[in-house]
Amino acid sequence: DTAVSQTPKYLVTQMGNDKSIKCEQNLGHDTMYWYKQDSKKFLKIMFSYNNKELIINETVPNRFSPKSPDKAHLNLHINSLELGDSAVYFCASSQGGTSRLYTDTQYFGPGTRLTVL
Amino acid sequence: AQSVTQLDSQVPVFEEAPVELRCNYSSSVSVYLFWYVQYPNQGLQLLLKYLSGSTLVKGINGFEAEFNKSQTSFHLRKPSVHISDTAEYFCAVSDLVGNQFYFGTGTSLTVIP
């Protein structure tokens, strides 16, 4: 069983479109994250949710909106896609709550490669 | 703000040779340190982490790292690498003062047969 899964694996779309990436974890973890990895492999945290509540919201354009329907799912919706949004997006999860946010091991999904044409 | 520097972007090494991947961070105050590995076309997975205690941390796949507070470093080492170690390695720092988590820019390790 895949611990952290993401769909789709690849996403190719035109500028201006709206798209969503879904993430699910079956580890029973309380916290989930979205990361963006650019073409130079630089990884930057975008959002984090703990038990469906937003706890980290880095400087990310408003076009990006995370949604957590339950603690096992964290989806990322992107409006009006731009060329610069092309990247690999990783979902991750960790076990504990906010007090353990910076110590717990994070478990990553396989990534979604988004290409904006 | 905290920063993480991985001095070497690419490290080629022959199979069965030792390797050291370097990581330095900007502040020695209240940090936790991690090394993650990303195999080709996969997500990251934890190799090892330092939270407290012994400064020498042993991880999976024969890797180890040493926390050096005075030099603000957390270098990753393996005495004998295998082809299967070819991957991207990321150092990461939790800054407990600023409540931030940062990844370094990664080191691409290529093991040459």
Task: Report on the architecture of this protein.
The complex is a heterodimer of chains A (117) and B (113). With 117 residues, chain A is an all-beta fold. Chain A is 0% helix and 54% strand. In chain A, strands 2, 4, 5, 6, 9, 10 and 11 form a 7-stranded mixed β-sheet that branches. Chain A has a 4-stranded antiparallel β-sheet with strand order 1-3-8-7, with no helix packed on it. The radius of gyration of chain A is 13 Å and the shape is globular. Chain A starts with a strand and ends with a strand. With 113 residues, chain B is mostly beta strands. Chain B has strands at 4-5, 10-14, 19-21, 24-25, 31-38, 44-50, 56-58, 64-68, 73-78, 87-95, 100-103, 107-112. In chain B, the strands form 3 sheets. In chain B, strands 2, 5, 6, 10, 11 and 12 form a 6-stranded mixed β-sheet that branches. Chain B is globular and about 45 Å long. The chains are: A mainly beta (117), B mainly beta (113). The A-B interface holds A 4, 40-45, 90, 92, 101-103, 105-111 and B 32, 36, 41-46, 49, 51, 88, 90, 94-96, 99, 101, 103, 105-106, 108.
Count the strands of chain B?
12
Strand content of chain A: over 45%
Distance between the termini of chain A: 34 Å
What number is the mean pLDDT of chain B?
Answer: 91
* Major β-sheet annotation of chain B: 6 strands, mixed
Oligomer: heterodimer
User: Quick one: biggest sheet of chain A?
Assistant: 7 strands, mixed
Structural class of chain A: mainly beta
| Element string of chain A (H = helix, E = strand) | EEEEEEEEEEE
Low-pLDDT stretches of chain B are: none
Classify the helix fraction of chain A into a percent range. Answer: under 10%
Uncertain regions of chain A: pLDDT < 50 for 5+ in a row?
A: none
- Note the total helix count of chain A: 0
Q: What's the short story on this structure?
A:
The complex is a heterodimer of chains A (117) and B (113). By secondary structure, chain A is an all-beta fold.
